Amino acid sequence: MKKITALAAVLVLCAAHASAYENSYAGYSVKDGQPYYKLEAKKVYAYTNISSKKVYQDEEDLKNTAVNIVNYYTAEDMEQILGEKFSTAYFDAEYEKLALLERSQLNPKTVPAPLLELDKYAEHDSNGNLTIQSKVLKEKLEKLTPLIKTGKIAGKKAITVSYLYKQGDVLVKIDTSLVSANDRLYLLSTVNTDQDLYAPKKDEKDADTDADIDDIDTDEESDENDEAKSAAYAKEEMEKALEVENVFVRDVPAETIQRFDAVHTDLLKGFKAFTPTSTPKTISFTDAAAGKSVQLPDDWFYGQLNLKYKDKGTFYLTLASSMKEMQEVAANTDYDSVYAVLAIPQADPEYQKKVTELYSSGARNVLEHWNHLLITASVDNITDAEIKELLSTPVANRLAVESFISEGLQRMKGFSNEYFALKDYKTNFDFTQEKALIGINADTDLLKEFAYNNKILLSCNQKAATAMLFIKKTDVETEKSLEQQVNEWHF
User: Fold this and answer.
1) What is 419-432 written as a DSSP string?
2) Burial tier of 242 (Cβ tally within 10 Å: 0-12, 13-18, 19+)
């Protein structure tokens, strides 16, 4: 009996460990429940509250998904942000000060609270951090009134900053709880959405459609009026989609707020701080279908999607690149210009010109700062008859596939413009009855001045299929270990 009990305890512990993310160098673990989407970098881990183990049928199954985000800061990071020494004792003192104000029913903003100046966290280059207060969201959040409160959540002293707002037809709630341990600060954030509460009702949609039909006339003058109305409506809808509006808790159904709060509470319940180790964590991802793992350079991040479909197996999609390069792109993006162009009615004579200019400037900004991109995609439990046919007659199918791809690449090489040019390429084909491999190595020019090398690997066996795309600037050094792993991404 004791042996059975001990075995059960071990199984429980193993299951708990399997569904938890751990960063020993950062000094924490969090129960993520094997999420269907996750993002990891040196100092940030984000994941959805929906498990990849669940079977999905369509997008409706993924509506109102919440995202949890964990950021951590060392004492040295915090000293740069605050301009003074930081420790867990410092945090506890700030916590008690804010708790006293809350008990006295005074506004926490009546006294200086450096810890709550979250925009400083985004401005601080903390070597791979990515916060809610990024440049994209900063202007939105500045228009909103945050709710600040203190209290123990799951036994942890937490200072929580919350935003509840409406954007377009979507209700959004952002909760960020600050907790501290081992002289480090952790930001535990949850982004919740509800797409049903403010969604137009069916009757309202029908009424809008009827109104549009009533406005239509056949004469030329009416056509011009309709076009002008349509353009004005498009601009109004764009401005509406970008606008944010404070929402009060009392105006939202109690069950919705309870659902939001439960997700954030679960995040804090699953978060555990412990003494950090001295060995930095390596960033790596695993694709279960391909049976491959890739260890990434120190400043890289990856985002991975695992979706399990009924009778179709599990689909894995991973994107990886340099966090620093991504942040440079974001920092040099003129979001005001992007929004302004998107708000221009298509009927406006300047529309096409402005969109072309936006595309060119935006693409140039991305290419100037982004040097690497790795994308992998795989699917397991293949039942496709075409795959089986491909492997059943390898010699004939190799000739057919090689002819098709080579002809397509040759045509592409003959086609070039100011945006794209294929300069050279090499191919490799290996077909057997067990597996098939297609390899393409191509050199391209983008916007005439940015030269890239592109590696594409496509392979399949009787059970799974995988694809890999690795893009890098030809004049940029890449870690040899990464290049080797990329070249081995096939069955």
Assistant:
1) SEEEEEEEEEEEE-
2) middle
Which single residue is written with the structure tokens 């959040």? 141
- The closest alpha carbon to 165, from 126, 185, 139, 202, belongs to 139
- Top pLDDT among 390 and 91 is at 91
**d(Cα 303, Cα 224) in Å, to the nearest integer?**
47
Q: Please write the tens of the pLDDT for every residue from 306-325.
A: 988 877 788 999 999 999 88
Apex CA 157: angle with CA 154 and CA 160, to 5°? Answer: 90
Let me know: does 436 contact 391? Beta carbons within 8 Å: yes
Q: Is the dihedral of CA 471, 315, 431, 410 positive or negative?
A: negative
Task: State how far Cα 63 lies from the chain centre.
Answer: 16
Cα 262 to chain centroid distance, Å, stands at 22
H or E stretch at 230: helix 220-242
Tell me the per-residue pLDDT of 445-468, one tens digit each, with 9 for 90 and over. 999 899 999 999 999 998 899 999
As to burial, measured by CB atoms within 10 angstroms (0-12 exposed, 13-18 middle, 19+ buried), residue 119 is: middle
